[in-house]
Amino acid sequence: MADQMIFKRCEIKYMLDITQAELLKNQMKQYMTADEHGVSTICSLYFDTPDYLLIQRSMEHPVYKEKLRLRSYGTADKDTTVFVELKKKYESVVYKRRIAMTEDEAERYLLFHEKVKDTQITREIDYCLKNYKKLAPAVMLSYEREAFYAKDDHEFRITFDQNILWRNYDLSLCKGIYGEAILDKNKVLMEVKTAGAIPLWMVHFLTENQIYKTSFSKYATAYRTIYAREQRRSCPPENFFVFTGDEVVQQAIKC
């Protein structure tokens, strides 16, 4: 396993129901191949400042934004290989820097700033750690992912995420997979990852089934719930607004 990787691509998200997802997977058989790992459980521990500066900036849809997270495939232990990822987005293009280390090394590196590797990627992560004061684990996300790549272009990938769970306690990849659900059980979050154009067969499927891209973010959705609960505890005005995807939903909160 390579211990560092660099990605540059566009990531486009769509919200499907289970029936649409199964129809698409059936059509994909002639064009795409399932990832060798099949369905995997992804755990992502997002880092942020005490006042959630990174996710708040991200939700403002700036030209440039970045996120820092620690990722494992399934529940980790101290010796499990995990990935420290710095994800940047500039003008709709995603740039991801990723480096592998053990969970124990990652904890010492991210929490105590102990130098465990010296690469260009860790130097970029070091800058992020210095630029944002008091970065610490903020939200744990987990979900089941089914991934596919195109037979004629391994840079074109499609992933389907279900059973997306979040929590803002027990913030460790070693604590297990549990939390509150983000999506209805009938919903599937699809991500199209590509360095070029979306193939015509895919465009036709999306058009025929009236499936449109969304700006849905797992971390942002979890943060909105955290924010709403903090507002409830501080006794806000009776009505306030939170954003969910592309629409505004008015919610009543009473102390």
UniProtKB/TrEMBL annotation:
One GO term under biological process is: polyphosphate biosynthetic process
- Per UniProt, what is one Pfam family of this protein? VTC
Q: Which InterPro entries match?
A: VTC_domain, VTC_sf
Record-annotated VTC domain positions = 9-226
Protein name (Swiss-Prot/TrEMBL): VTC domain
Protein species of origin? Roseburia inulinivorans
